[in-house]
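Hi everyone, sorry if this is the wrong subforum. Our group has a chain we'd like a structural model of before ordering constructs, and none of us has done structure prediction before. Sequence below.
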Amino acid sequence: MAQDLKQPPSSVVIQTNQQSSLPPLPSLSGQPQPILNNQYVMQQAITNGTASTAMILGIIGLVATILGPMLGGVTCFFGWFFGLLGIILGHVGSSRATQLGGVGRGNAVTGYVCGYVTITLYLIPIVFLIILFDASGW
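Answer:
Right subforum, don't worry. Here is the predicted structure as tokens:
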């Protein structure tokens, strides 16, 4: 009878400091989850790399086209290419931003606007020279 007194009744739950060996339950993103001791919550940031690349290429094309006449015209020869890539990737990044909930939309718009300005600045002297040489009968 002395041994029966040392054991707790079967209806009492004994808590221990050991962690459960059960795997964590799957959860949906954005829903609150309990955080246990020594657990860190890590979330992956949603980014739009296409939009960022479009912005960088559009700005490079614009700067190369503007600085071209000051640097002897060397950068004008490849500035249009960066502008064209900025336009293409800007539109792709803009559509991807719509799918991601607006992430990177500003970068995409900056990329294709700079690309369009680059192409326009590149074509204005070419069209001017064509009109000039055509009018002179060359």
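For your construct planning: The mean pLDDT is 80. The two ends are 121 Å apart (CA to CA).
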